[in-house]
Amino acid sequence: MSAEQASKMKQNAGADLLWAKGLPLDRAIHDFTVDEDPLLDPALLPWDVVGSTAHVRMLVHAGLMSTADGDALCRGLAELYPRTLAGELPIRPDQEDGHTALEQALIQQAGPVGRRVHLGRSRNDQVILAFRLYLRNAVLTLGEQIAELAGAFTEFAGRHLEQPLPGYTHMRRAMPSSVGQWALSFAEGLNEELEALDGVWRRLDRCPLGAAAGFGVPLAIDREYTARLLGFRKVQRNPVDVNNSRGRHELALLNWLSSVAGVLEKYLWDLALFTTEEYGFMQLPDAFTTGSSIMPQKRNPDVVELARGRCRELKGLAAELAHLTGGLPSSYHRDSQLIKAPVLRAVDRAQGLFTVMARLVPAVRVHSECLDAACEDELYAAHEACRRAADGLAFRDAYGEVAAEILGERFAPDRHALSATHTGGVGRTGICACEAEIAGRREWLTRLRSRVDDRINALWIETDSKHE
Known about the structure:
Blueprint: H1 3-11, H2 27-34, H3 37-40, H4 45-61, H5 67-85, H6 98-110, H7 123-159, E1 164-169, E2 172-178, H8 179-204, E3 206-207, H9 223-229, E4 234-235, H10 239-244, H11 248-274, E5 282-283, E6 290-291, E7 299-300, H12 302-325, H13 340-363, E8 365-366, H14 368-374, H15 381-390, H16 395-407, H17 431-459
Parallel strand pairs: 3-4
Antiparallel strand pairs: 1-2, 5-8, 6-7
EC number: 4.3.2.1
Family: In the N-terminal section; belongs to the lyase 1 family. Argininosuccinate lyase subfamily.
Pfam families: Lyase_1 (PF00206)
């Protein structure tokens, strides 16, 4: 290749892009601005097809496109949909992103009418919609996984509800607890996170399409109709806010994942300690451990440690996204392109983490003998002080008496004189109420999933009246 030919190629990069105007583009600039999009956008392509189909149906409904053209486009999109789901629609670097790849594939599939698919929208609201649909599906999937994991914790707690376990403060034995109370704490934490997920869902449950570049469209489009087609509860009204919210809604999801990670990280830390030889309270099955390359006797809890690291990774991805989206003025800026990588990575990492943990929790074995032996008399010091105070002695006096008996090695508590029968205590853990609330969250997720899936499945029905 001559120097002149190389120079022309360098200057004419991106000649076939959606926004190309026949002006030269430096190859290095093209590569820098395209960045990871060809690698990341396949995850969004199926949702771009779904959003494009709803957009076409809206154009026909609003009288901005003929029924014949709309049907041709929807047939073409329906044929491309399974290819995008299977990852069989490649995005070449010269195509810049999934939008270009999809539009060019549609033109190839449906003919010149494919060039009409972009009427009434910008790449801005197109990508926001695709990402919104992706996030909406991710919320349902992640919520379903967390509900399953919460159920695994309640089931484990139920099997060991009354098994004594030392409760620790400052990493030192403090008061009697139980394996059931300990395990149920994580179920309750995840139950709380499922409740918080409703707020994330409501933020995502509004349709951004129609905002275009951020100022609306000078056409008589019907944004409410598009929202109904896609199963959104409402329209995201202000077009400037649509662009301003890019990154904000994604951060809400990643912050939620970070909070979930905070619940799980404590469980993983406890499990790493409780399964050591020094504690001996619990054991991982051999199938959940790995070996050492030099020490024949070693069985390592790598899955626990890596899962714990994934929890911190989720927190780091949320922090990365917060930095990327902060410090920008209103409306669209190309910085927003960079939010895709941490969001897609966080969702992928979280799904893998939750899948593994749902298998790990029920597999843990409890060593009752070690636990019983660890619950020595001194663990019941606070119980004994409370018993004496309940009999009329001032608590500070009872506290002093018990402390003196422990120091004099003559402490012999009545372990069964008092039990925690208040809500949440060892004697009344509230496991049935927790199970019922988790079941309610499952039903909520099932209803949402059904609503969304029914709407998307209806998109492939050609009769427009089906959506009236």
